[in-house]
Amino acid sequence: MKIVILDGYTANPGDLSWQPLATLGELTAYDRTLPEETVERAKDAEIILTNKVCLHRAEIEQLPKLQYIGVLATGYNVVDTGAAREHGITVTNIPAYSTDSVAQMVFAHLLTVTNRTEHYAQRNREGAWSSCPDFCYCDTLLTELAGKTFGIVGLGNIGMRVARIAQAFGMNVVAYTSKAAADLPSGVRKLSMEALLRESDVLSLHCPLTPDTHHLINRTTLRQMKPTAILINTGRGPLIDDRDVADALKEKGLRAYCADVLTTEPPQADNPLLQCDNAFITPHIAWATKEARARLTDVAYQNVKAFIERRPQNVIC
Predict the structure, then answer these.
(1) Average pLDDT of the residues in 245-259
(2) This prediction's pTM
(3) Which residues are known to be catalytic?
(4) Which of 100, 204, 207, 285 could make an SS bond with 232 (beta carbons 3.0 to 4.6 A apart)?
(5) Residues 188, 173: contact at Cβ < 8 Å?
(6) Contact 74/268 with Cβ under 8 angstroms?
(7) Residue 116 exposure: Cα atoms within 13 Å on the Cβ side
């Protein structure tokens, strides 16, 4: 079988190997593929692997040999699953490979705000501590997490892991979730969205992006939050309204915004959040630890192997 990877660079920039996939067929791996290059590069492929290159109906209908699309991610909105189903194409994804890495990033962001280690390391390089008359040097607010309330929107795999870590810090964990209160982990309280906004000292977003959650955090909901609250988004950029969050930061209606995702990626240079000193933005790398990427590439191989052996797994359609 002819296997084409359309955009393999982010998952494997060279420190991992696609060799296992090459044992399953004739493999061609591209680092990146522009939209106008997709059909030409995939025209003879029976198996396509894609991360962010979109396969809409227009592309799918020009690929008559295509039998399988493997999404190199958990989210699969890059594929028109309706068109794939109509053409008898199997679509798979890679669930839960980055749970630990994303949860780790949530707290890396939170500790950036509460402890400011990078700030102090840089100030020490500049001589601030060396020239200080006291035994310690402190020019920011430092905050203890124990006893604070950690709010979570969405208790899937990542939300659950985040809840356990927050409890380990001694935080009180509350959640807005579709799960029944009786099914929540010990010590996690279920709240309405309004109560969650009102009570949370830290609010972390882990819900899927749907029409109902698009701009879930906006001018109205921000006004229901504590002005001292820290908002964290490692889910999807459009869960928040960029302009409204930037305005809240500038007006001191929010202590900090921490995010690994933005509405447009890569962002436009004039994105208002990039101009806010108390917005801490990382470039969609929470998933990208070497360990998580190794799991991703291994599951991608296992998915393709299972499809070839007529026992497909992690099937979307």
Answers:
(1) 98
(2) 0.94
(3) 236, 265, 284
(4) 204
(5) yes
(6) no
(7) 16
Mean pLDDT of 240-263: 98
| 256 torsion bin: left (phi>0), alpha (psi -120 to 50), beta (else) | beta
Instruction: Give burial (CB, 10 Å; 0-12/13-18/19+) of 99.
Output: buried
Q: How confident is the model at residue 10 (pLDDT cuts 50, 70, 90)?
A: very high
Mean pLDDT on 3-8: 98
Count of other CB atoms within 10 angstroms of residue 189: 15
Asked whether 253 and 280 are in contact (CB, 8 A), the reply is no
How far is it, in rounded angstroms, from Cα 256 to Cα 230? Answer: 5
